[in-house]
């Protein structure tokens, strides 16, 4: 009887810790998405988007974003929590500038509609990742290989300009990023259950930022893939 009660108490404590950590992750993610959205809209509205998209600065920003993601992912354990926060915010700002190009290609109403579709799909898969008892680690490895594949195909298609290949990449991308959402949420949930809240404020902040970055990337990429299907062209 005592052992059963103790086990229930431990399980409840892990669930509570997981919920607290997930809330911190989602707060950082929401802040990043909000900042990106505001910067993208302001850049497009001011007319800067047209100047940036047609200049070398656009490619510089894209490579800088990629570098920030790799650096933050690789160095998260060694950098200060304040540095990690600054890098995440900087990435959200730069991504907002580059994503302003979306407002040049699609109508505002279709962008808003696609955003809500993305939010619905993301929320459903995030919920699945939280409640499922199935271990998604094997699925995550498979999806990561698929992600590498569509990145290579996307780079190749820059030179080919094949619309059919672009469409296929978008279809696969939707499946890959919805799956990665569930996988990443489960991984973050596990971090909470395994006691990251007991490792100190700095560890919690860095853990929540790197978790938020993963979910932020899942959301943004899913949104961009869905735009190909639901986005209304300005042409």
TrEMBL record:
What's the protein's topology in the membrane? Multi-pass membrane protein
- Any transmembrane segments, and where? 21-42, 48-72, 84-105, 111-130, 142-160, 166-186, 207-230
Q: Which InterPro entries match?
A: Bax_inhibitor_1-related (IPR006214)
Give yes or no: UniProt keyword Membrane. yes
Q: Which GO terms describe its cellular component?
A: plasma membrane
Give the family per the record: Belongs to the BI1 family.
Q: Which PANTHER family match?
A: BAX INHIBITOR-RELATED, PROTEIN LIFEGUARD 4
Q: What is this protein called?
A: BAX inhibitor (BI)-1/YccA family protein
């Amino acid at each position: 009887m005592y052992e059963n009660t103790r086990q229930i108490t431990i399980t409840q404590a892990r669930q509570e810790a997981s919920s607290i950590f997930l809330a911190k992750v989602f707060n950082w993610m929401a802040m990043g998405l909000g900042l990106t959205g505001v910067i993208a809209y302001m850049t497009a509205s001011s007319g800067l988007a047209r100047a940036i998209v047609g200049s070398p600065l656009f490619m510089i920003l894209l490579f800088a974003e990629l570098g920030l993601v790799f650096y933050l992912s690789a160095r998260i354990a060694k950098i200060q929590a304040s540095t990690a926060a600054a890098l995440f915010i900087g990435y959200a700002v730069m991504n907002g500038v580059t994503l302003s190009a979306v407002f040049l290609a699609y109508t505002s109403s279709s962008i808003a509609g696609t955003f809500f579709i993305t939010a619905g799909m993301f929320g459903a898969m995030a919920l699945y990742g939280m409640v499922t008892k199935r271990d998604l680690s094997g699925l995550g490895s498979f999806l990561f290989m698929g992600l590498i594949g569509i990145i290579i195909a996307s780079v190749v298609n820059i030179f080919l300009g094949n619309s059919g290949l672009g469409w296929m990449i978008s279809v696969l991308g939707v499946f890959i990023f919805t799956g990665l959402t569930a996988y990443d949420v489960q991984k973050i949930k596990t971090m909470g259950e395994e006691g990251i809240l007991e490792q100190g404020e700095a560890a919690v902040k860095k853990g929540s930022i790197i978790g938020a970055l993963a979910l932020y990337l899942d959301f943004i990429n899913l949104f961009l893939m869905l735009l190909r299907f639901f986005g209304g062209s300005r042409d």
